[in-house]
Design a protein that fits this description.
By secondary structure, this protein is an alpha/beta fold. The chain has two domains: 196 residues, Glycerol-3-phosphate (1)-acyltransferase, CATH 3.40.1130.10; 106 residues, no CATH class. The chain is built from 16 helices and seven strands. Strands 1-7-6-2-5-3-4 form a seven-stranded mixed sheet, sandwiched between helices. α4 crosses α5, α13 packs across α16 and α14 packs across α16. The longest helix has 24 residues.
Length: 385
């Protein structure tokens, strides 16, 4: 199924490439400083010595990436939890499709949780637009990331999509390696998480059989990601206003870098990953409903969305935001005044960080409230469907 594609440009690094890549990373001062921002007790020489001890990808993930994540978890979260692990098998490869909250940490935390529970780590889909510096690409590929190529001309995009589809099917079916990919390109800035049909069409491109069999080969397992606090909420609100005031506005690479840094180092409160069951058994039902390929993709999109929405962890923040945004008291008995004032104070602090021309505080506040209310709105819809 992959004889016509060369995967070298998009695949993660292999074990035999690790030593040379790490030697080059030892010369990247910015990378060393990033590690020191998480573990300030380490000198540059100590970090380089630790890096050069690693001979395989798993060595690097265990001694560097996962070690840093464990340290980070204690500093910027109130715990990271994996719910529903009994629904997956340690010796089976899955395609985990999730909503997308944080540029870096969604997949990183998932792998940390899988590692803690002795499950196989995933390969990670990451857009090449995030490779602001070459060292970011190298670190990502050392951390089992495969490259999702963005912003290509139409013909090249079709070729790239076909190659990625073949690579993902090859990895899942032949290498028996789990994979992670977000349900859409980029994050849903307002937390209204929706799977892009284009993602599922891409996955189906490499299939040789009918709809249900093609997707059964991928063993899709949706996962819901819930952050109590999103440290990038004010940055997302800024983007909403800038786009409102100037429809031609586009983020810069510096903006992406700031979002990555803020997302990594900002406080997130409680973080929960909830595993849905694998959807293989429901694919036959979709195929029985319609033979139209477009309708089948749309039904699969709706199924994945329902799995993700119904499995959110709902925090007090979500309930407070829901009531404030919709001017209701639906959940007023499920949080107290102290919790409400704490959340309102938090929003005020986030708004105070915003310094843009014609700052529209009412608009910005509404956008932040939407980010916290929308998961609950979608959760209620999914539960009542």
């Amino acid at each position: 199924m992959n004889e016509n594609f060369d995967f070298d440009a998009i695949r993660p690094y292999r074990d035999e490439e690790v030593v040379d890549v790490l030697k080059n990373l030892c010369e990247e001062e910015q990378f060393i400083k990033v590690i020191q921002s998480i573990k300030p007790e380490l000198s540059s020489d100590m970090i380089k010595a630790i890096l050069l001890q690693n001979k395989t990808v798993l060595d690097f993930q265990g001694s560097v990436i996962l070690s840093l994540l464990e340290e980070l978890t204690g500093k910027v979260t109130n715990g990271v939890e994996l719910i529903g692990k009994e629904k997956i098998s340690p010796d089976k490869a899955y395609l985990y499709i999730t909503n997308h909250r944080d540029i870096v940490l969604d997949s990183a935390f998932l792998n940390m949780l899988l590692y803690r529970n002795k499950y196989v780590l995933t390969e990670i889909g990451i857009g090449d637009n995030l490779f602001v510096y070459d060292w970011i690409r190298h670190v990502a590929k050392l951390n089992r990331s495969f490259v999702v190529e963005r912003n290509l001309p139409l013909r090249q995009q079709l070729i790239s999509s076909a190659r990625m589809s073949a690579y993902m099917r090859h990895t899942l079916s032949e290498k028996k390696q789990s994979m992670w990919i977000a349900q859409r390109e980029g994050r849903a800035k307002n937390s209204d998480d929706r799977t892009q049909p284009a993602l599922l069409k891409m996955l189906n491109m490499s299939g040789k059989n009918q709809f249900a069999d093609n997707f059964k080969q991928l063993h899709i397992c949706p996962i819901s990601i819930s952050y109590e606090y999103d440290p990038c909420d004010y940055l997302k609100a800024i983007e909403f206003q800038l786009k409102r005031d100037n429809p031609e506005y586009k983020k810069t690479k510096a903006d992406d870098l700031k979002s990555m840094g803020t997302g990594i180092m900002g406080y997130k409160g409680k973080v929960c990953f909830t595993i849905s069951e694998e959807i293989d058994n429901e694919l036959d039902h979709i195929a029985q409903q319609t033979e139209n390929k477009g309708e089948q993709i749309n039904l699969l999109t709706e199924l994945i969305d329902k799995k993700i929405h119904s499995n959110y962890t709902i925090f007090s923040n979500n309930k407070i935001a829901y009531d404030l945004l919709l001017s209701k008291n639906k959940f007023a008995t499920e949080y107290n005044e102290e919790e409400k004032q704490t959340f309102l104070s938090y929003i005020d602090k986030q708004l105070a960080k915003i310094n843009i021309p014609n700052k529209d505080e009412d608009f910005l506040r509404t956008k932040i409230l939407e980010m916290y209310a929308n998961p609950l709105i979608n959760h209620l819809t999914a539960k009542n469907a």
